[in-house]
Each structure stands twice: as C-alpha cells, then as structure tokens.
Amino acid sequence: MERHQSSATRTPTNSVVAERRSKSKSYRQSYRSCVGAASRLCFTPGFTARRLTASRRAPKSHNVTEKVNPQQLALLMKTEWQLSYVTPLYQFRHTQLKSYSRQLSAFIAAEKQQGLAVEVEGGQSSFRVSISVVQGMVEADDDAETVLIQIHSKPLFARKDEPQRPVWSGWLTCINGNPDYLRSLPEDFTCLPLFCSSGAEGLSTVVKSWFQQTFDCCFGPLEINHTSLQWLAALWTNCHTESSIQHLKMIWTLPVVPPLQVTYTVDPRDAWELWRSVRKDPREESKGGEEVEEEEEENSIDIEEVMEFMQGLKGHFYRHFRLDLSAGSLKQVTTALGSAKYSGKIKISNSRYMITTFTLLTECALLKMPL
Questions:
Q1: Is-contact 349 77, C-beta < 8 A?
Q2: What contacts 265, CB < 8 A, 6 or more positions away?
Q3: Count of alpha carbons within 13 Å of 187, Cβ hemisphere only?
Q4: Contact, 32 vs 323, CB < 8 A?
Q5: Are 353 and 340 contacting, i.e. CB atoms less than 8 angstroms apart?
Q6: Whole-number Å distance between alpha carbons of 105 and 102
Q7: Model pTM score
Q8: pLDDT tens digits, one per residue of 127-186
Q9: Which secondary-structure segment (H or E) carries 226?
C-alpha cells in the first residue's frame, strides 16, 4: 500500500516570458550571472572560471521514509547510479508524465525497428515506459519535483503470462539548487540538472536522445572530482555519531609507471577523532570580535576543515608507509552511508543522509553545464 504523499507536484515557474528562438542563450546568460554568487568560494579543478561552494551546512538527518514512496525509495537506495548533467528542459511539464511515457515508449520502439542499439541482455520483445514523480525529495521552494523513469520489458521467448520486469531506471532531480540561478530562468524552463541512470548503455543513449529532441536540452558526463570526493569523505564522517560509517575507505591513484592504486581504510573511530580535532569552535572564533550565531556556525563546514582533515589522513598514511598521497588523486570514497567514484558512479546506503549527498551532486551538475 502506497503512503499518502503530502508534497504537491509542481514545476517551478517565473515571471519572465521566453521565446523559443532565444531559450538556449537565455539560460546560459542566466547561469553566467549567477555562478560565483556565494561569498565564500573555492576553485573547482578543471573549471577555473567556476567555483564550488567553500562552506556548506553540516549533514542533517532527514527522515525521507515518511515522505517518499517506499518502493521508489528502495529503488533509489539499492542501485548504483551513473551520473550525468542535463541542461534546463524547455516546456517540460510534470502534469504531462503519462503522455511522456507513451511518447518515449513509441520512440524506443521506432529506434529498435530501425535496428539501433536498444537491446538488453537476452533480447527483449517490447518495452513499456513509466515516468512518475518522486514526491518528498523537494528541499527548497525553487526545486522542481524529482522525476523517475523506468523501462520494463520481458525476454523475447518469455511465456505470455510472464510479467514484464524493470530493465532500466533513471531519474532527474534538483535538490537545493542555486536559488539565484533557478529564479533567473525563463518560465518555460524546468531545471533538473542531475541525471542518474542504471541499466543498458544503449537504453541510456536512447532515453537521452528522446529528452534532447523533445525538450531541447543536452546531456554530458558528470565525474565526481577529487575535491567533491574529499567533501563527501568529510560530510559522511561528520555523521558518524548518529549513523556509524563503519569504515572510511579511500582509493587513490599515484602517477607512477605503471600506475599505482592505493586502498586506504581508516577505522571509523580514528576518522571521527581526527575530524572532531579539525572542526572549528565558533565560540573561539567569536572571542574579541563580532558575535556570531553559534547554531549557524556549528552547522556549517568549511573547505579549510575538509582540507585539514584530508591532510591529517594523508600525513598518517605517510608516517606508516612513507608514501605521499598528495602526489596522487582520490578516486573513490566508501562508507556505510554510501559510495562515490570519480567515474561518476554513486550508491546511497543510508536514506537519512541522501539529501546532503545529492545537494552536493546537484551543485556539481550545475557547475558542469556548458556556458
């Protein structure tokens, strides 16, 4: 039995009127005007003109099980997702999802008839698409509701009474997106910048192609870079007292010939003690100066703390193995809360902190968009 959903399905709108011929130019100009709006920023490697927020709220436990459909949440939690970014969708309407489901089903059938690569393992006779809203994921007034896409099919020689099974899943989301940017978009645009997919690459390609043709958007790969992985390591470790991380496992690659891969696993208590030692005390910072709101300060994490935490971990490793991880690159972070890879793969294992994780990934997707 599905739980009653309390949040309303909506596509945020603005007061600006858009003309189709100028839509691409409009959203790019909007993004140029909003990037860098935060007062405390740091550079994102590879994108020196754009910056990742240098201070963010500490993770807060969210009981999403009370808001999100249990079946949808189970799918989001048990799957490793491949990340992409997607530019704003033109004239996308949350009220038209049933129509979109039929259109995408027909598009896949047409692509298959033309002999394009939409087959999955074992061969499939037909495909049925279901596009639905994942209510309960919205965190800010300007965020659009998350959209889940599922493709069902059954083997070519299956019995007639055999039910179709899911062969591909994907979802588009925006969690705590940059409000200045979202409000600047023309009203005919919906921003769901983070696209997560799981399943046959051929189906992913077809789904992206349909979205591009239907909503005049574009997709691109989204890696979780070195800096973002360090953020996740710190954010997840910060949750340890409420939800045990069980371990902090990191995989580094060092630029030697042949390339050297280092797996570094830290005891959760040691990771927590190190993290606690680098956390700033707002009471100390406020002495002799202007008063600060203690609660707000305690609930924020600075990039300086993240870097000091990582430096402590690397220093400990060097003392034991005489190997300097600073010369390498962080490629994967894993705890009991989730796993993230540089290649753009993410898996969430604890729903209480998934909002924190996808807030960071939404920001990464917005920053990766072409200008």
A1: yes
A2: 247, 248, 249, 250
A3: 6
A4: no
A5: no
A6: 5
A7: 0.83
A8: 899 999 999 999 999 999 999 999 998 776 666 767 788 899 999 999 999 999 999 999
A9: helix 226-238
